[in-house]
């Protein structure tokens, strides 16, 4: 999807729609002509054609264009929102003196009618601009512009396929940026746009806020910090384009070819109207350049508390405790995961089955998952056994295999590709289990796998390093309940349909958790409070449990002030509420 629209109510019958893009005092007004004929909403969506509201184009352009002689490019210019803003900006810079045209005012647009409309509008604004029709990815970068400004198309990978995607990936590769097939079109656009800049040039783009978070954009984040001397981001707390699906941010990158920088400066505005009065920025230095930039969504105080804890040694990332890996993939959970009653009915032997943490993760919301809990689930009909003969199946095992073949289970993709089809690839029981999908206000939970159960891919297994295994099994699930880890989960994980928070193993590696030394030092107090925390979790009181762990670890052990802890707690509440609210709107 592209960003929101300047003209949302184009009458489809009208050939042209006139809009008055009013400017704040002191700036000029002009009438803008927008084409509507021959185009449809579906066609516009397919090429990511959503036009930028004037205040946004104006803000970016005023930042980027600094002299009357600059060479300016708007790639994917649509109907030239940015070039028109540049005309105003240049007039303003020129004052009353007439030093003629800028060195270049160029646009590229693949949609012929939009390009024609852009030319008309620019001509009406009294400038000789060059708008070329073509695929931006086929244009050889010239490294000659002072300024590249615009709003690239945001076409999701599902709709961005074939030659178009291949060309975009090739273009990004020219800048040394490898993009996967999951990348939306904007990622390659941003990279390719930079290649049009001369050394020292500036790039101002409207991009989806997912630049901060999605894994496929890691290479883009790295590229930006690597290539530019300054990277500024303007984030919006409200939706700028209410009619569009996408949250956006402004990327203002200065000093092309004069990087690297290790940080981005973050500015926050409520909405487009408030851009003019934007507050002072703050700095976010990601631990490594490709890391997610989502912590920049935190308030200035929360970001300080978060970065201080991470850099102070009291907190580390989960990866330093152990490896997080995907659970077993059976190919057909209904067939392979069995309740005790079903195992008894089938007459399976103990050599045919393995103890299993049943599919789903609702039972993993406490500190530990032990045999008593597993047996209780089994008695209630949950699938606490996995059909997985280690050696020769029993006669009942063979009968069940034959039944599976009769039902076609052996033809399911994952079964078909392994030999024999009924032997699910084994995984050692994990030390800890980490929930993968977390509904609404919940957070990814760690629990000790005291039952030593096998687990499926609805949860991840954490295999602790030998040196910290004993301590981690005893106390890491409890110690990972601080507000710091809760905030961390919102920033390393990602919002999923319906407002769920999903965490992949690679993301879990980056989850902030207390360091071994801190957990060791507080082990007695943590052990003593365990029954109380377990009780709170049993009654669904995650935040209350988190508060008392905060008291012991953040305040008691790490000497953090209570107001600072409060800032983190509020930040968690805010990020969670934001995720859940977006999920409700069904837009993430
Ligand atoms: C989000 S709109 C932005 C238009 C304009 N820059 C603005 O901000 O109002 C994206 C534009 O990119 C154009 N486009 C999509 N893919 C393109 C490509 N590969 N090369 C050139 N233009 C493209 C679409 O036709 C559409 O006009």
TrEMBL record:
GO terms for molecular function: DNA binding; N-methyltransferase activity; site-specific DNA-methyltransferase (adenine-specific) activity. The keyword Manganese does not apply. InterPro entries: DNA_methylase_A-5, DNA_methylase_N6_adenine_CS, M_Eco57I_C, N4_N6_ade-DNA_methylase, SAM-dependent_MTases_sf. Pfam families: M_Eco57I_C (PF22837), N6_Mtase (PF02384). Residues 44-245 form the DNA methylase adenine-specific domain. GO terms for biological process: DNA restriction-modification system; methylation. Residues 291-554 form the Type II methyltransferase M.Eco57I C-terminal domain. Keywords: Methyltransferase, Restriction system, S-adenosyl-L-methionine, Transferase. The keyword Magnesium does not apply. PANTHER family: DNA METHYLASE (MODIFICATION METHYLASE) (METHYLTRANSFERASE)-RELATED (PTHR33841:SF5), DNA METHYLTRANSFERASE YEEA-RELATED (PTHR33841). This is Methyltransferase. It comes from Mycolicibacterium sarraceniae. The lineage of its organism: Bacteria, Bacillati, Actinomycetota, Actinomycetes, Mycobacteriales.
């Amino acid at each position: 999807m592209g960003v929101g629209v300047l003209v949302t109510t184009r009458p489809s019958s009208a050939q042209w729609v006139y809009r008055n893009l009013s400017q704040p005092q002191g700036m000029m007004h002009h009438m803008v002509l927008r084409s509507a004929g021959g185009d449809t909403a579906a066609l516009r969506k397919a090429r990511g054609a959503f036009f930028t509201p004037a205040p946004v184009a104006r803000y970016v352009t005023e930042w980027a264009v600094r002299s009357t002689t600059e060479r300016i490019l708007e790639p994917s210019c649509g109907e030239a929102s940015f070039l028109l803003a540049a005309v105003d900006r240049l007039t303003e810079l020129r004052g009353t003196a007439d030093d003629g045209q800028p060195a270049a005012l160029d646009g590229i647009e693949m949609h012929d009618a939009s390009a024609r409309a852009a030319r008309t509008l620019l001509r009406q604004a009294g400038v000789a601009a060059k708008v070329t029709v073509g695929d931006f990815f086929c244009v050889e970068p010239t490294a000659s512009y002072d300024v590249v400004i615009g709003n690239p198309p945001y076409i999701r990978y599902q709709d961005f396929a074939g030659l178009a995607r291949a060309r975009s990936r090739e273009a990004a590769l020219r800048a040394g940026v490898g993009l996967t097939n999951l990348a939306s079109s904007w990622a390659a656009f941003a990279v390719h746009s930079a290649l049009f800049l001369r050394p020292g040039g500036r790039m101002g783009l409207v991009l989806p806020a997912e630049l901060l978070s999605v894994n496929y954009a890691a290479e883009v984040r790295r590229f930006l910090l690597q290539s530019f001397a300054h990277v500024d981001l303007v984030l919006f707390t409200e939706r700028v384009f209410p009619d569009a699906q996408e949250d956006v941010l402004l990327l203002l990158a200065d000093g092309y070819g004069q990087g690297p920088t290790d940080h981005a400066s973050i500015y926050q505005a409520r909405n487009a109207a408030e851009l003019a009065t934007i507050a002072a920025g703050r700095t976010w230095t990601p631990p490594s350049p490709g890391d997610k930039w989502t912590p920049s969504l935190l308030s200035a105080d929360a970001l300080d508390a978060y970065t201080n804890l991470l850099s102070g040694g009291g907190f580390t990332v989960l990866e330093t405790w152990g490896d997080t890996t995907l659970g077993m993939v059976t190919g057909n959970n209904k067939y392979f995961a069995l309740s005790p009653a079903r195992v008894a009915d089938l007459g399976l032997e103990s050599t045919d089955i393995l103890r299993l943490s049943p599919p789903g993760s609702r039972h993993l919301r406490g500190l530990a998952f032990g045999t008593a809990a597993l047996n209780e689930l089994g008695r209630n009909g949950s699938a606490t056994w996995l059909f997985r003969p280690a050696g020769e199946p029993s006669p009942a095992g063979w009968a069940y295999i034959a039944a599976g073949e009769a039902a076609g289970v052996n033809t399911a993709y994952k079964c078909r590709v392994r030999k024999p089809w009924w032997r699910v690839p084994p995984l050692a029981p994990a030390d800890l289990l980490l929930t993968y999908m977390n509904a609404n206000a919940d957070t990814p939970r760690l629990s000790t796998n005291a039952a030593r159960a096998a687990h499926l891919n609805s949860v991840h297994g954490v295999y602790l390093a030998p040196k910290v295994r004993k301590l981690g099994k005893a106390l890491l699930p409890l110690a990972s309940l601080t507000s710091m880890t809760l905030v961390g989960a919102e920033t390393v994980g990602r919002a999923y349909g319906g407002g769920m928070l999903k965490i992949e193993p690679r993301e879990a590696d980056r989850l902030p958790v207390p360091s071994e030394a801190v957990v060791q030092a507080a082990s007695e107090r943590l052990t003593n409070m365990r029954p109380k925390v377990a009780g709170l979790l049993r009654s669904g009181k995650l935040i209350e449990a988190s508060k008392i762990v905060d008291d012991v670890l953040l305040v008691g052990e790490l000497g953090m002030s209570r107001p600072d802890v409060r800032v983190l707690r509020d930040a968690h509440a805010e990020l969670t509420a934001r995720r859940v609210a977006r999920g409700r709107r069904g837009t993430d």
